[in-house]
Amino acid sequence: MLAKQWLENARDVMNKIEETQLENIKKAAGIMAETIEAGRWVHTFGCGHATLPIEEMYPRIGGFVGFHPMIELPLTFFTNIVGGMSVHQFVFLERVEGYGVEIMKGYNFDSRDTMWIFSHSGINNVNIDIALEAKKRGMKVIAYGAAEAAKGKETRHSSGKTIFEIADIIVDSCAPLEDASVKLKNHKDKIGPVSTIAFVTAVWMTVVTVAEILAEKGIKLYIHPSHNAGDETAKDRLAEALAEYKRRIAGV
Question: pTM for the full model?
Answer without folding.
Answer: 0.95
